[in-house]
Amino acid sequence: MSISKQDVEKVASLARLTLSETEKEQFAGQLSAILKYAEQLNRLDTEGVEPTSHAMPLVNVMREDEARPSWPLEQVLKNAPDEEEGHFKVPAVLE
Description:
Protein name: Aspartyl/glutamyl-tRNA(Asn/Gln) amidotransferase subunit C
Pfam family, one: GatC
Family: Belongs to the GatC family.
Order of helices and strands: HHHEE
Helix content: 25-40%
Subunit structure: Heterotrimer of A, B and C subunits.
InterPro entries: Asp/Glu-ADT_sf_sub_c, GatC
């Protein structure tokens, strides 16, 4: 499968990009080369290969949650432009 200059123009229009004629031809060639490579991958025998979502196993590297004291409410609200009953007061965004 190859990408035509018209295909590049359509995608550029959808992305609201302005491309020169040289860029359109260049991108058409580059995108065609990418699709040609993908076609090679489609010819590989993947029978019996389990699908994976990641090439490497994912490991959670976050620390354990631990409860600890929080800041005093007065200190938290000290720099608030407006507060009401211990909460930040902000202008309404919904009517």
